[in-house]
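Re: the request from the purification team.
They wanted to know what the chain is likely to look like in 3D before they choose a buffer screen. I agreed to run a prediction and write the result into the notebook, where they can find it.
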Amino acid sequence: MKIVSFIKSRQIRLSITVSIIIMVFFSIIATMISIYLQPGSFMRFIQLIKANPFLFVLNYLPFLLLELLVFFLTSNPVFSSIIPSAVLILFSYVNREKIILRQDPFIPNDFSLVSEVTGIIQKFPSNQIKTYAFVAVAFIVAVTVSILFFRCKKIKSIKRMIGLIAVICAAFILNSTLYTSDKLYGSFAVDGNIYFEVNQFDSKGFMYSFIYKFNTMKIKKPDGYDKQYFADIDKNFKEPSHDTKELPNIIMILGESFSDLSNNKHFDFTNYTDPLKNWKEITSGPNCVSGHIVVATYGGGTSNTEFDILTGYSTRYLLRDGISYNYIRKKTDSIPNRLKDIGYDTLAIHPGFPWFYNRENVYPNIGLDNFISLKSFQGKEKYKGGYIADKYAFDSIIDNFDDHFKQSKSPFFEFCVTIQNHGPYDQKYKNVENMFDCDVSLTDNEKSLLNNYFTGVKDADEQIKRLTDYFENSDKPVAIVYFGDHLPPFSNGMDFFSELNYNIDANGTYEQQLNLYATPYLIWENNAAEKISPIKEVAQKIGLTKTDKISSNFLGTSLLELFGLDDISPFFKFSTAMRKETPVITGGIYVLPDGEYKDALKPEQLNNISKLQKWQYYKMFDGN
């Protein structure tokens, strides 16, 4: 009772005018903190605001309206200032960290990855966890004090109701006009390349950009979409007959953050082991095809690359941002599903949490019937760099391949996603030795980042060699596809690209911009598979090796074409024909069969891209 009396005697009751002034003040401060947290130049953004003050208003209004909404619900101005401001500032901080780590802003679809974030946080250093814990405790104390000691003078229920309705109506009108307008969003100046999403967020403010993305990320039917047209194609399609004895077993492997960044004139591996020593030997061999795929994202978004490869659909033509796996909610036409139709058995391997990117639900829908995940990789000795080592992922590939043929005569499709070389690379591996000489002056931290990253690349390279050696003389035909999902997300952002003169620049030539999304791939076959189809020879005939780059959605269907299997789906046939016409399609930059980079296409080429977009919409949302 004494405590209650003490609290009541110390309570501060504020007038509605003072309450609103407090919230206006808090929302301005919170907006400035949000802007300051952007990883881009704070002063540069202030200059943009001076040039167009309305940009500040667009970032400020969400803070004010949310605080007013909570106020008319609780009649507590301090509480109403703290809670909304803290939540939106937290979003701003998450955006900052995501951009620093992956060069990718925080967008609404990322809410689906809450469980993934929880798993990542568990790997943070203890001092970082302590800092977050301290902030959380301070926040709880502030909220408690605001609840116990602050009140607004009594407001009549009718006034609170009117205020609440007014705030909701204002929010609805503003959201339906200002925050959904492509014209308005595109009217603001962008510091840097307009096609680089980080530049958009840094130049327009996180809060405005985040809400704009919330309104514009919904999947809409493409213009001119005709469901019946594609339904008739399905209806009239006659599945071809394939002799299962003449089908290759396919092992498809996604290498986490695998790249050929070690191929740089400034690196010298003379006194060391080239991280890509085996890769270079394998890709120069007579039974291998190689090049680069242009993926949808930089520094992250592994599942988007998976989606493109396994379905033949294009993330770039499905959604502007986010995770394409989020839209697979039912059985979806895909390469694994079509292979199953002609007699294949399928398996997925990923030594990570099955809920990451919702793989445990997505894989069955795209035809990967069995899924071996982290729980099958027990033992601390199997970890390297915080994740299951590639060695054990490749052990699983080999063991499951052998086990399959002890029980079945059906051809086998294995899809493996490795995880060992996942970032961050700051002190990732223990006792890492120097792996290269460099004629460019690098800081100790930069050398450490590269040595840690190249350690993972070298481990992957050794496992690829081990796998090809294992299957080279097998009497079972085997085709191995290996590819990187995205370039590594270094903690120093893109500094290495300029320091080491890579032909990579988000604001550079068309080729330099595409190189930001280019990762290496190889397709290798053993002697038994070569008898079914000599892929090196076939690749030349179908123009696969005519250009170094192809869009990631063309890789899976190109593999099928190499073995005469693209006829198992009319969409796959269309995809292979499209690849021959326009090897790279990104929505803004294209590569033609002669290797020329273009920012515009002929009408018939654009019509095919439009057909691709409509067809994949049908397959994902309207088809059976």
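For the purification team: Residues 427 and 448 are 7 Å apart (CA to CA).
Please add any questions underneath this entry.
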